């Protein structure tokens, strides 16, 4: 019986990790615009979207001249469904 549990524990862990990954929100900024689809808000004057080394991907970059506290956020319903 313990052999069966030891065999299935890694599979169960991989399954649960896969489920938790579905609760993550991602944005690849391929449209080059973080103010729409989805709309990110916050200190938007301190951010810009720049081309990534691998087209068509883009990257969100900070324009802050130095160390500071700034943020962007976007609403998501994924967290409400996470377990
Ligand atoms: Ca966008």
**Span from first to last CA?**
29 Å
The overall number of domains is: 1
**Beta-strand level of the residues, as a percent range?**
15-25%
User: What string gives the helices and strands in order?
Assistant: HEEEE
Large-scale geometry: extended
Associated small molecules: calcium ion
Count of runs of 4 or more consecutive helical residues: 1
Residue windows where pLDDT falls under 50 for at least 5 positions: none
Helix content: 10-25%
Q: Let me know the largest β-sheet.
A: 2 strands, antiparallel
Rounded average pLDDT: 80
Order of the strands making up the biggest sheet:
1-4
Would you count the extended β strands for me? 4
State Rg: 19 Å
Computed structural class: alpha+beta
């Amino acid at each position: 019986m313990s052999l069966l549990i030891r065999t299935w524990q890694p599979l169960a862990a991989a399954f649960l990790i896969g489920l938790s990954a579905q609760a993550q929100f991602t944005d690849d900024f391929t449209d080059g615009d973080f103010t729409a689809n989805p709309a990110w808000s916050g200190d938007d004057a301190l951010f810009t979207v720049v081309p990534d080394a691998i087209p068509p991907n883009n990257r969100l970059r900070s324009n802050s001249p130095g160390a500071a506290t700034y943020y962007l956020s976007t609403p998501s319903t994924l967290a409400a469904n996470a377990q």
